[in-house]
Amino acid sequence: MASFELLKRDGLARICRFETPSGSIETPALLPVVNPKINTVPPRELHDEFGFGALITNSYIIKNTPELKDRAQAEGLHKMLDFDGIIMTDSGTFQSHMYGEVDLTNSEIMEFQKSIGTDIGTVLDIFTEPEWSKEKTRWATDETLKRTEEACAMKGEMLLNGVVQGSVYTDLRTYCAEKMSKMDIDVHPIGGVVPLMEQYRYSDLVDVVMSSKMGLNPARPVHLFGAGHPMVLAFAALMGCDLFDSASYAKFARDDRLMFVDGTFRLQEMQSLDCDCPACRGITLEALKKMKNRDRESLIARHNLHQIKEELEIVKRYIREGRLWELAEMRCRAHPAMLDGLRRLAEYRRFMEMHDPISRDGALFYTGPETYNRPVFQRYESRLMTRYVPPSGKVMLFSDNGGKPYSRSYADEFDMARRNGYAPVVVTPFGPVPAELDELYPLSQSLFPSITDSDTDRRSMGLTMEFLQRYDFEDTVKLENVEDRGSLEYDADMLRALAVSRYQFGIIATEALFRGKVELVKSKNTNKIRNVISDGEHILSMRAGDGMYTLKAEGAARIAAAVPAPYIRVVVNDDSVPYVTQGRNAFCQFVIDCDPGIRPMEEVIVTDRNDRVLATGRAMMTRKEMESFGRGVAVKVRNGTSDEP
Ligand code: GUN
Ligand code: ZN
């Protein structure tokens, strides 16, 4: 049995613990390809020096090399390779892709993989080539599915790779992935992608990966078969790939090619060796060129591995910091074909949005027009157009001066607008931002260049026009065109308290929350709203960091009474009730139902099966993830109802 637990996520990207009977690794992880006939870097060194906890080798090559076959069957793969970590084997599919038909059946190679003690074996899938017709691809995909069923029945203790095929046909990819999700499979490689990467067809690669991900069980690791260039790791992780493998580190070394995060470079064409990795340190370009062939190959292979390792560490750091979009957007600028991939990803924004957190710790950085494809932008637009109630029929528009929050940098101007009966709205790269919403993530927690580009200008103007029409304002003015004669009274804090609640919980929930006498408790230091008290009860608190509310038990009870289930509910089974009521986290194995609209980091209500409120907290997963994962935190519970005064 294997287990796969979500530890940290940023959208579809995730850091997970993958446990197998022979060890565990943290993903995203790369498995170096070890060719048992050519030991470029010995497996022990991969494990002890480089820290690779898993490798991949080829069972077909071992089976066809009598000496290796006998040793592997006699002493086992781990001993033969001298590797203590997790060993994955491939099945010979790739050899048939490269060299034509292989003389082998699925059951033969399955039996063989079991006989040599592989940890994760691979079915003999059919490599679906990008230029294949749809008919041929459909046949090959169905045949792969049949063989995978056969492999499931045979796998025994061995873990199994069920390879998603389907060439570039997105419907076949999703179909194959859905079928495989129902089988007893441990890891899902996405296969048939090597030619796409070799030909720099990154937009096709995006179609293939995303359509596969959409059909897969989210609680299983996804391996992008044959991907291991440091250049693609951030982008592939962004699409939810967990495992990678690389034969290139060794193959490229053989013909003097060095991998870097911005591409592959030929030693002969390099002007300097500005690399400080442990392999290159202290070595000049001239010295490297003069080395004996074997020594040079050996050094370059290690250099390549160091580049991969370092980039993986950077990818993980960006996932932890909630900034993987920034990294992927930067990396995709290494090659125009990768930028095509990034642009194609916009087609999948609905699926991306389902996984994108409601708020992040760090600020959003603009890296270029592709940044607007991130789901946060569409989410803001749709909530602004459906969950906003204008405080006035008249608008005063302000330009974005970059001073955030705007209500501080425009304090006097907003006051003047409101005294004269206008609702202040700033025209920003997000589109129009009403003054009441300006402290919400990511409006305030974002940085854009002050010299704007035409995409930004067009976008913010277009969205502002839409907004003005949507709410049918009778009058739209600019500051300089208004004479300040007003003395209308207003309560900016109350306007904010209501607007944020509508944005976060919706209009009906807000009516239920804010009733009777409403008092706002403000921070003495920052003057920001801290707590909302309604009818004498503490219903909401506002977080200073992202300007969003946390729900108190009474607030949750009011929403639950006013908005029918499943709205923002996570329902746990009876076993879990006493724990959650005491404020312990809700784990996915106890979740029996959940609102499909819930997004990661969203404020939610944990209930029992009768819709009784047990606790409030933040969702860590989507509905499908809660259903699929066998372990892990579904809701980080903040307070259970029993510990409330
Ligand atoms: N290695 C690279 N691509 C593939 C693939 O599609 N299937 C298998 N089994 N191995 C691969
Ligand atoms: Zn180096």
Q: Could you walk me through the main structural features you see in this protein, from its secondary elements to its overall organization?
A:
The chain is of the alpha/beta class and 645 residues long. The protein folds into four domains: 3-349, TIM Barrel, CATH 3.20.20.105; 364-481, Rossmann fold; 491-559, Roll (Nuclear Transport Factor 2, Chain: A); 564-645, Archaeosine Trna-guanine Transglycosylase, Chain: A, domain 4, CATH 2.30.130. The chain is built from 26 helices and 29 strands. It has a six-stranded parallel beta sheet. Helix 11 (230-238) packs across helix 15 (324-331) and helix 23 packs across helix 24 (553-562). Bound molecules: guanine (GUN) and zinc ion (ZN). Residues 275, 277, 279-280, 303, 306 line the site of zinc ion (ZN). Zinc ion is lined by residues 275, 277, 279-280, 303, 306.
Task: Give me the CATH superfamily of the largest domain.
Answer: Queuine tRNA-ribosyltransferase-like
- Strand coverage percent: 15-25%
> What share of the residues lie within helices?
25-40%
Structural class: alpha/beta
Q: How many structural domains in the coordinates?
A: 4
Q: What shape does the CA trace take?
A: globular
The parts where pLDDT drops under 50 for at least 5 residues are none
Largest sheet: 6 strands, parallel
Q: How many extended strands?
A: 29
- Give me the CATH fold name of the largest domain: TIM Barrel
Main sheet strand line-up = 6-5-4-11-10-9
The Rg value, from CA coordinates, equals 28 Å
- CATH architecture grouping of the largest domain: Alpha-Beta Barrel
Bound molecules: guanine, zinc ion
Q: Taking all residues together, what is the mean pLDDT?
A: 96
